Amino acid sequence: MMFFEIVCFSCKNVFRVYEGSEKYKRFKEKPKGTYCCDECSHKIQLEAIKHLFR
């Protein structure tokens, strides 16, 4: 199975994106973009929801 190792822009940890996932497709299209791991992505979504209801 193919994968890429990407550095999370938020926590700077290295994470893998595997072939067939949405992040893998986005990385193949635009490798210079900014990407975050699933944990940071979830935290960002929760913060956005909190700010929405303030």
UniProtKB/TrEMBL annotation:
- A Pfam family annotated for this chain is DUF2197
Q: What organism does the UniProt record list as the source?
A: Bacillus thuringiensis
Q: What is this protein called?
A: DUF2197 domain-containing protein
InterPro entries for this protein: DUF2197
